[in-house]
Amino acid sequence: MDRQEELLYWLWLCNMEGVGHRTIDMLLGQYKHPRQLYQAKESELSCWLKGRKLTQFLKSRDMDRIKRLMERLAKQNVRFLHRQHEDYPNSLRHLEDAPFGIYVRGALPPKGARSIAIVGARQADEYGCSVASYFARELSNKGICVISGLAHGVDSAAHKGAIEASGYTLGILGCGINICYPKENASLFRAVEKQGGILSEYGLNVPPKAGLFPLRNRLIAAMADGILVTQARERSGSLITVDQGLEQGKDIFSVPGRIGDALSEGCNSLIQSGAKLVTGVWDILEEWGWEKKIEQKILNHSDITLVNIEKMVYSVLGFEAKYIDIIIEETGLSVAQLLPVLIELEQRKLIRQPRPNYYCVCV
């Protein structure tokens, strides 16, 4: 049996309607290879499958349909990898419920490279997104792959940070490999595919459903060496990824948040439960054996030359955007004194306006 024929049988196995993962796993235990299962007689199969399941199974045995599906995947630049394929990620093989096959656009992470999953709230505020982008960018600069779920909020910020650093980033979907969800992330979807890769255990046109995302989270955890939560509510879906990671023996990192902030409750709770508190990339790198040669902190811009008034304005800004009246109050400057400084710092790309008259640092 050549490689292409083997791919077809595995693709058939992954596209049977009405036959679940556990049933397929049981059948593979009996027949060892999808081709043997495909060729099994109905009288044999009736020992394992009954009623509607048997009917659905027999109906699925249409190799012309599978060949057409393979052609459609190829036209959309989608690669199908089954469990026994040499390029199937080893990190997924160890899962108890490892996908029988996965669909990939772009490239998988380089073999042997460290990777981190950066996850958090879909409704993350400017601070949460800035922190996610910062960690993604700085870790990418160290050659670490950034993994996330291409959702709103923290996920998007993490992918963007890795892209800004020209690093590798992997988006793992809870829907079909050809579906961008949310639709607003279409340009990011394309950028992630171009600079890294997109992975799903679901084939073409599988719509996003609530029940698929917790299943997706186990793949995010499996593909990463560690999981970083930058901002999350107490009952955040991101904590499902953490739970999966703990079961798989992954390192868990969490960025502390403000007391009483609903978007920080999940992060603070993780730290109380034993997650490593991180305030900069070296907290993660040291955990992984990097030798710390230079102390690095978030917002450490010692190489920036600023005059005194610029230093004063810059020093009161952080990740979280401040309204101009607050900056005036904290610096004691007049509007006439402050505005030229803000314009200068913005032109030098040291600060930015996420919305009119609100300023934060660029990190």
Quick take:
By secondary structure, the protein is α/β, with parallel strands linked by helices. It contains 17 helices and twelve strands.
Please tag this protein with its features.
alpha/beta, 363 residues, Arc Repressor Mutant, subunit A, nine-stranded mixed beta sheet
Number of domains: 3
The oligomeric state is: single chain
Strand order of the largest sheet: 1-2-6-5-4-3-7-8-9
Q: What does the largest sheet look like?
A: 9 strands, mixed
Total of DSSP H or I helical runs spanning 4+ residues:
17
Radius of gyration: 24 Å
What features would you describe in this structure?
The structure is a single chain. The chain is of the alpha/beta class. It is 44% helix and 13% strand. Helix 8 runs parallel beside helix 9 (154-164) and helix 11 packs across helix 12. It is elongated.
List the helices and strands and how they pair.
Layout: H1 3-13, H2 21-31, H3 34-38, H4 42-45, H5 51-60, H6 63-75, E1 79-82, H7 90-93, E2 101-106, E3 115-119, H8 126-141, E4 145-148, H9 154-164, E5 169-172, H10 186-195, E6 197-200, H11 212-223, E7 226-229, H12 238-247, E8 251-254, H13 265-272, E9 276-277, H14 281-287, H15 308-315, E10 322-323, H16 324-331, H17 335-347, E11 351-355, E12 358-361
Parallel strand pairs: 3-4, 3-7, 4-5, 5-6, 7-8, 8-9
Antiparallel strand pairs: 1-2, 2-6, 10-12, 11-12
